[in-house]
Amino acid sequence: MSLDEQIKGTTEEVSGKAKEVKGTITDDHEAKAEGKLEGLTGKARKAVDDLKEKAEDVVDDVKEKFEKKD
């Protein structure tokens, strides 16, 4: 897991939620939508990083199995 990507994702989620709340309080629908989008972008960033890590683990497992056969 790339700590950098996880931090970026979490930062986007928190920032997005803050913007969303601000938009709700001020009745600013555009700010609310931007905040929601930023939060979802952060979640997506973290999910992609998780998938990348899992794919790397699978590749490593396959490499190990082939190395053991030799």
Automatic annotation (TrEMBL):
Pfam families: CsbD (PF05532)
Domain CsbD-like: 5-57
Name assigned to this protein: CsbD-like domain-containing protein
Family recorded in the similarity comment: Belongs to the UPF0337 (CsbD) family.
InterPro entries: CsbD, YjbJ_sf
Originating species: Weissella oryzae (strain DSM 25784 / JCM 18191 / LMG 30913 / SG25)
Residue numbers spanned by region Disordered: 1-26
